[in-house]
Amino acid sequence: MIVDPLTPVLSETWDAERSWTLETYTDAGGYRGLEKALTMAPDDVIAAVKDSGLRGRGGAGFPTGMKWGFIPQDDEGAGAKPHYLVVNADESEPGTCKDIPLMMAAPHTLVEGVIISSYAIRASTAFIYVRGEVLHVLRRLQRAVQEAYLAGHLGADIHGSGYSLDVIVHAGAGAYICGEETALLDSLEGRRGQPRLRPPFPAVAGLYASPTVINNVESIASVPMILERGPDWFSAMGTEKSKGFTLYSLSGHVERPGQYEAPLGITLRQLLDLAGGVRAGHRLKFWTPGGSSTPILTDEHLDVPLDYEGISAAGSMLGTKALQIFDETTSVVRTTLRWVEFYKHESCGKCTPCREGSWWMVQVLRRLEAGQGTAEDIDLLLDMSANMAGRSFCALADGTSACVDSAIEYFRDEFVAGMTTPAWELFPYAASALHAPADTVGASR
């Protein structure tokens, strides 16, 4: 049940003066969740997160508390090894832009979540893995961690609780593949970031072959409020199986792009109303519910609930809630080509279906964009897609296949047209520029 159109919780202080400082965060009630957590047993903290229904906000939607519960806590075997928390802040999915604004505007929300989460899984060291290109965010996080140490929220014997924690902010080298959790672990260990074969899973043999929890920024940042206000407060928002609030990122052909924090289950129609609608004089053609690696949807899906079950039933995935909006001036062939070019470039090359398949997909899509496609090209794309999906160590190949398959499913006629007519003649590219004037509709490439 949706209780409010918008629920500013994570974003509550984003518009405050110097919102990134410890002073601002504390004045708004920051670190109260930590105070409460330290009075509880670690297992009770895990139980609270389980009871809240919080699911991972990084794409898969796996229950966060359940993931924490997989960490062995016995005194022998894997349980006797050090435990680690790793925060995946390597945000790089095309269209995804929620974690970087969160860390920029309110880094202490994440830092507090890291401390509580580490306490729950009995970790004494935590890592925040950030994209190296976002230097401004890296510096802001480093300063927030420093402030937390100076305030006694981090370090030895935190607030006299007997619990100690060190947090390390690590800058990645800028590889999309390192957003995959096991490739991220390899990168942290100083190796080339490539996905690992599983099992063993990170909960048993993760960082340095020790039990490790890997969670997304938004997932961890949601924890302090759950501890402070209680799991019932959190689960009262959202839907039956998709609890709580989340950040929806609207971009593209929309009047007011940005972050919209709302309960899970809100619809795109509602979000577009809040964002001023599709840009003036145009209509919605297609959109992504969770970034470019999720199958596209069309204007037929405006009223599908934006939760894990609703989007899955519509044939896509909620992913990172990166809602890319495209109007009728956009060429689907060109858009799909740009996405596949990205995945080809970012493929780590470890798996042959992904490495070779993405390269050949680009060649075929370029032909179709130029109006030089053949009668076999559509079936060839679908055949390559079928030979990529589910046949690699990670989901990069699956994401590549998903955007191609769904584009052909909903807009096959544009791919057929690519056998005779260039995409830039059918859809003049200047017209799809965000602030294109009306006289560009008939413009050429």
Stated plainly, the CATH topology of the largest domain is called Rossmann fold
SSE order, one letter for each helix or strand: HHHHEHHEHEHHEHHHEEHEEHEHHHHH
Radius of gyration: 23 Å
CATH architecture of the largest domain: 3-Layer(aba) Sandwich
Total tally of structural domains: 3
Residue-averaged pLDDT, rounded? 94
Low-confidence stretches: none
- Helix segment tally: 19
- Principal-axis shape equals globular
Distance between the termini: 47 Å
Task: Please identify which CATH superfamily of the largest domain we are dealing with.
Answer: NADH-ubiquinone oxidoreductase 51kDa subunit
Question: What share of the residues does DSSP label as strand, in percent?
Answer: 5-15%
For the biggest sheet, the summary is: 5 strands, mixed
How many β strands by DSSP?
A: 9
Helix proportion range:
40-55%
Quick summary:
This protein is of the alpha/beta class. It has 19 helices and nine strands.
What is the secondary structure topology, with strand pairs?
Layout: H1 22-27, H2 32-37, H3 42-52, H4 64-69, E1 84-89, H5 99-105, H6 107-121, E2 125-130, H7 135-150, E3 166-171, H8 181-188, H9 202-205, E4 212-216, H10 217-221, H11 223-229, H12 231-235, E5 245-252, E6 258-263, H13 268-274, E7 284-288, E8 297-298, H14 308-313, E9 322-327, H15 332-346, H16 352-369, H17 377-388, H18 396-417, H19 423-426
Parallel strand pairs: 1-2, 1-4, 2-3, 5-9
Antiparallel strand pairs: 5-6, 7-8, 7-9
Helix pairs in contact: 3-6, 5-6, 15-16, 15-18, 16-17, 16-18, 17-18
